[in-house]
Structures are given as C-alpha cells and as structure tokens.
Write a structure and sequence with these properties.
Elements: H1 3-16, E1 27-29, E2 37-38, E3 45-52, H2 63-80, E4 83-94, H3 99-116, E5 119-127, E6 131-140, E7 155-158, H4 164-170, H5 191-194, E8 198-203, H6 208-219, E9 222-226, H7 238-241, E10 247-251, H8 256-262, E11 267-273, E12 278-282, E13 285-287
Length: about 300
C-alpha cells in the first residue's frame, strides 16, 4: 500500500470514526489498536453481513442512509437469534474515499449507534468497489433462537406488516424519515418479551416465503400460510419481496393470547405441518409464485 493511501486512510479513520460516541459498555478497548477488547459472558452471538452498492442499495443513495441501513440490517440477525446487539466491526471498501462522503456516512453511523445503544469496536478501510461489511456481537437472551426448532402444529407469526421495505425502495429518493427501506423497522423492543414463547425464528430479509422455507428445511417440517390483506402493504407479492426485517417465528398455539398481548402488530399467518414445503393459500386457492424471494446469486429476482 502506498504511503499516500495510508495517510488518507488514517485521516478518514481519525476524523470520522475515532470520534464516534459509543453507547455500549461491552467495549473495553475500541478503535485505535490492532484489535478490540470486548467484554462478554461465556456465550455471545456474532454475525456478519455485507451490503454491495447496486445490489443491496442504490448506487446514488445518500451515504447517511448507506450507513444506517447497512448497520440496521446487519444487526437484525442478532435479534433473530434471540440476542441484543452491543457492538460491531465495520469494514468499508470505497472507490474514491473523500471527506464529503465519509462525513455523511459517519453521521449515519452515529445516529444508528444512538438509536440502538451499541458501540463501534473497530474496522477496516480499503480502496475498491463500494461495499459495507458489518460484523455484529450480541448477548443472548435466556433462549437462543434457532431455525431448526419448529414443531408440528405450531402457529407461525410475523412481527409486523410486509411490503413497506419494497415501497420504501421505490420512493427512496424522497428521503422521508419513515421510509422502511432507508430505516427498516427492526422489532428490537419485541425480542425480549417474545423470547419465552418463540421456538424457531428468522428475520425476513429475502422474502417471507423463502425465509420461512429456511426454517422448514432446518426443522424438517412444512408450512401453510393463509394470505390476508391485514398483514401486507400492497398485495400478495409482498410475501416474496423481502427487505422487511420483521421476525418470522413459530410458537405453541397455547401461547397465542400472551403473544398478542405483547403487540397488536404481531400477526398469526399460518401453521407448521408435515408437508416438507411452504404453501400459500388465498382463501381456498393455492398461490404459485414464479420466485420464492430474493436470491443474491440469481439474476431472476422479484
């Protein structure tokens, strides 16, 4: 690496990341050394997520929202596992590092830190095509939630309406504060009260049908969804569009009343069965989709 690139990297890190205010007490030693020191219990959760320009967010998206969105969707995996995120590592690859871009990106990072009470532990900055990679760490709640724990006849729930993320993508240039593509509404306040009742869980990132199929495959079961306009934004295609970042989970039907008391925005959408496939019904008619959801390795996405 040339000395010019090194100087620019050090300048950007010192000016826009060393000054970020951390909200979590889990970090004993953060940015500035070769590695971070993180306080942890015997068990902790970790996940990594990469957002690529032109694939996971528009190429002309404001850097503030590139930061906020990339961080929030990366944190979603910790919530889906029954954990509370406390810190993250941030790796940025940028084709033309400059102060204007990093000032806005840093501002979005700080707002996320403030909103979710987490800390940045460190990261990396390199030259190349624009991408954001985030590694999150979190503390597990009493029950770590797996995809493989769904059981026959359990009810299937989602923590909010589907389709708002897709509508937000269509209107992302308006930069409205309630845009669910720019600021996905991760159900962070529901994770703790729901924890005693959830058996299997996943966050809905790629689309309800394909993500529920992942639970079914891991649990060796099937599922039937009963379509209802009450839990979608536009139409039945919202079941496969993704970018929702709500939780899809299974629970014993005997806990239905307790679950609904936690939030009226939680919807029961179907049942686990023994068919080894995910079926969607609109009334008595089974619905067949051309695709089950988003696949980043396929050119044919919804």
């Amino acid at each position: 690496m040339s000395s010019l690139v090194t100087v620019k990297e050090n300048h950007l890190i010192q000016k826009y990341f060393n000054s970020l205010k951390n909200e979590s007490s889990a970090i004993s030693l953060g940015i500035g050394d070769d590695s971070a020191e993180i306080k942890s219990k015997d068990t902790f959760l970790t996940s990594v997520d990469t957002s690529l320009s032109g694939t996971h967010f528009p190429k002309d998206l404001d850097p503030f929202y590139i930061a906020y969105r990339s961080l929030i969707i990366a944190s979603s995996d910790i919530y889906a596992m029954g954990g509370i995120p406390h810190s993250f590592l941030l790796s940025i690859t940028h084709p033309d590092p400059n102060d204007d871009w990093f000032k806005k990106f840093s501002s979005g990072t700080q707002e996320f830190i403030n909103d979710y009470k987490v800390s940045i532990a460190g990261g990396d900055l390199t030259l190349g095509p624009l991408s954001i990679s985030v590694t999150f760490f979190g503390n597990p709640l009493p029950r770590v939630l797996k995809r493989s724990s769904a059981r026959l006849n359990e009810s299937i729930y989602i923590t909010g309406k589907l389709g708002a993320g897709y509508q937000g993508l269509i209107k992302y240039r308006d930069y409205e504060t309630d845009n669910q593509f720019l600021r996905p509404d991760v159900p962070k306040d529901l994770v703790k009260p729901l924890n005693p009742y959830i058996n299997a869980c996943i966050d809905i990132s790629d689309g309800l049908v394909i993500d529920l199929e992942r639970i079914c495959n891991a649990s060796e079961v099937g599922a039937q969804i009963q379509y209802d306009k009450a839990f979608i934004t536009e139409g039945i295609e919202d079941l496969i569009r993704g970018d929702d970042y709500q939780l899809c989970f299974t629970a014993n039907s005997k806990h239905h009343e307790e679950i609904k008391k936690i939030s009226q925005d939680i919807y029961c959408i179907g049942k686990i069965n023994n068919t080894n496939k995910v079926s969607v019904f609109d009334g008595d008619q089974e619905v067949n989709f051309k695709t089950k959801g988003w696949d980043s390795f396929s050119l044919k996405n919804s």
